[in-house]
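Page 42, continued from yesterday. The earlier attempt failed because a stray header line got pasted into the input along with the sequence. Redoing it now with the clean sequence only.
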Amino acid sequence: MSKQTIVVFGATGKQGGSVVKSLLQDPKSASKFHVKAVTRDVSKDSAKSLEALGAEVVSADLDKPETLSSVIKGAYGVFSVTNFLEKLNAAPEIVQGKAVADICKAEGVQHLVWSSLLNVTELTGGKLKNVHHFDSKAEVEAYIRDIGVPATFFLAGYFMSNLPGMSIREMPDGNWGLGLPTPANAPMPLFAAELDTGKFVKGIFLNKDKVLGERIYGATAYYTPTQIIEEFKESYPKVAATTSYNELPAEVYKSILGSIGLPPSFQEEMSENHQLFSVAGYFGGANLDASHAIVGEPLTTWKQYIANNPAFAAIKS
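This time it went through. Structure tokens are written below.
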């Protein structure tokens, strides 16, 4: 029996790369699926490493819709993801996501997995209306549903990679700490995107009948900032006595982002993004059990993620 082709966009990024690796390194999925890894530059080392795993690496550009049809044609499934941070602009994401959906519809793709997020403006009744990288993905999700493409919607949680060296770091006074504009008891769905996206998406492709039309929430568990910093202190006892969590006023947090060159619009966006945890919940309060049920392997815990993180090399005992 011939293998079904899965097209993976963003194949050299955190989410897409994890999907390619997970599909190819698991004997069950590798025997069922042929993986077509899409990147703009097939000559870079990250692309060649996917080729070495057995992926067919192909070139296409989400900004050039005319390059997409040939890579999607004949595919059974597609994993589609866009990168807001590349341009700090939601409008191109919407165009890109809808373009992939249109081609999936035209080519008869049987299972599209869209990397989506919730519409924060709607979820919060307009209280938080500047989290554009959520609202844009939600708009594409609504479009996919409207045009009738068979699809499942994967919602990635809060990236663990956002914390080491960025939010958890050594302060000017020599102490370590975590500072966010988020209450200490707010639930944050932590997610090791580069390690665990593929575990979820593989489960989605292997369980189509169970998940078609559903949202799958990608996170290991809900952690509060208090739990995050306590587990960090347990992992790095050398600095435990002088490490703390500090809830930052929104303006202070935005000024920190401004100090590293991020524009005011993105400062506001990220401030509201972190307020979402306590205002309505990153996933709107959704339980993770059903999403975990399709994953056939352990997910990465926060302690595992930070165990040998290079950002903390200087304080490893």
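Notes: The longest strand covers residues 33-39.
Reminder to self: strip header lines before submitting.
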